[in-house]
Write a structure and sequence with these properties.
The structure is a homotetramer. By secondary structure, the first copy, chain A, is mainly α. Chain A has helices at about 10-30, 35-40, 45-50, 55-70, 80-90, 95-100, 110-130, 140-155, 160-175. Chain A contains 9 helices and no strands. The structure holds a DNA duplex.
DNA sequence: AATGAATGAGGATTCATTCAT
DNA sequence: GATGAATGAATCCTCATTCAT
């Protein structure tokens, strides 16, 4: 599953590039140039392409990372999870740009599925506990999550507005 | 505020370009080339730039048009209006791409404000009639509308999914 | 068959580019950069790509041109034709590089076939007149022609050497 | 003239690289990447450059090898030798690409001269025996050989066509 | 000696925009 | 006003070569 372990410096560079790319794309959107990512990471352009043979691969890797982050945090509560994802999205421009996009599906199927699984588990629990209506389905919640995340990101919502919108959404899910 | 009246053929071309651009950008996103818009409109590239000195201007004009369309249709019901906007968004890729974007703010302040006004009026009525809770504020509804529209567009929701998501949203607004 | 006639300046540029490309590729081989072609032609790089959307297209066009030149000159004699082709090849590095190459088959089928036709006609005549043995086949002559042309080009033969080699070749064809 | 004796593994690697390079360049032409040669040889890219400081050097070494092969085989007959060279060329794409090229003259003067010597000897014998006309000169034969080899390679001649072309060439040399 | 990561110049191609016709 | 050719900066990507490990 994993190829041979990278040399220390290579691993360091990979991380730097990923960080830089996260920032750059968060600021300028996915249209930002790979050159700028390289500059921000403090490496030559060739190094970026050695680690991520294609711009798509780079974007995919970022998305994968973020999704993994979101999924692995282990919230016990659907609402808390929902809130966290939306908040994170607001900080990562790309994520949302990419989440539903055609182009970038390279190697993110797993992480995306994981997100769905996490959400599914939390939704089931929420129904049992009675904080969410029984007839609410997973795809609806996922769609609502994606939509809200996108809205928060692209709309530049204030923290206050975001909380109020989330309150409305949660009210819609409640019995 | 308005420039000199256009020649008949110029006015015709302007309309054609706007139509073509609407289609092209709806299909390919805002990254589609101006050249393709010109081709679809059946005019030369120079003509496009004569009418819209910048690609941004063209995008702005489309957005303005669409917003005007949405605003002027005169729905009597907040929910109907909400539904219509979301449905329209799903068909116009750009609209949503642009609605919250920094770049394209050229000349759309008016139309955006108009949309807010329309929504405000419908919201007030809904509160009076009692279909929406009294404490719900306009900016929340607008944010929710934008988010749902974006979700519908970029997520490629089916009509069925869209309806179910809207039901959840409306439930959140209801008393 | 032919698209709309080009504007005067466009036609002039197309010719310039073709000339420049002929020179550049003749000197440096097909690996020479399109940028250099543009520079030599005195146009911007974009202009080259407007006329020839791909480097391959440019190479193909050169080949086509040269083949057309060779074919249309109307030699009455197989040996004269053979000599002329070989001599021309020595001056056009690319031609030979391309003549048998896989990549560049875009739109040259016609011209190549024409060359074969011309050669076929001259061969038939030569057999009738008795300057070439009856059992010699067209594909052999074509192969010999290509080979000699390539040799002359890449080997950098002197005019004297070329003539002596041609004499040997012609001796091989004679009864 | 010769550097210090190589370590056993170094000598082994040199051979492997040369083999791999022969294959790769034969398949893809001289434009193939050094990286691929390294991969095929099962060594790291650095190792290739340690043995052959420049791509040109690598190409030169291959050529040298092949020429040595051809020269040392010891044919007793000019025609047999000629045939063997042409046949070999058809299998080694680079050889012919390189034989007359400017770039690659590093250290091949010797081998090329050796080829000339071999050919010269066979030609002299052939004249004595009377299978080749007395006035045929060495440079002509060498030129013809190179040309035919190139033709065979780049033209992708079938074995049958190759034989027929060789027959024509030999006829041209015969009294 | 070998490894393989990093470098960075170079090259093909695209596209918003300008301007001569 | 319309046309469409020309411009050239910007972008993605490749690959020979260097150098730290």
């Amino acid at each position: 599953m994993s190829s041979k372990p990278l040399r220390a410096d290579a691993r360091r560079n990979r991380a730097r590039i990923l960080d830089a790319a996260g920032e750059v794309f968060a600021e300028r959107g996915a249209a930002a140039s790979t050159e700028e990512v390289a500059a921000r990471a403090g490496v030559a352009i060739g190094t970026v392409f050695r680690h991520f043979p294609t711009k798509q691969d780079l974007l995919g890797a970022i998305l994968k990372d973020l999704l993994a982050d979101l999924t692995s945090a282990g919230d016990a509560d659907l609402f808390a999870f929902f809130t966290r994802v939306v908040t994170a999205a607001a900080e990562k421009k790309v994520v949302v740009e990419l989440l539903a996009q055609e182009g970038v599906t390279v190697g993110v199927e797993g992480p995306v599925a994981a997100l769905g699984d996490t959400l599914g588990g939390l939704l089931a629990t929420a129904k049992e506990v009675g904080t969410v209506r029984a007839e609410v389905r997973l795809d609806e919640v996922l769609a609502l999550l994606t939509a809200t995340a996108q809205g928060a990101l692209r709309g530049g919502w204030s923290a206050d507005l975001r909380d109020r919108v989330l309150a409305l959404v949660f009210a819609g899910l409640a019995p």
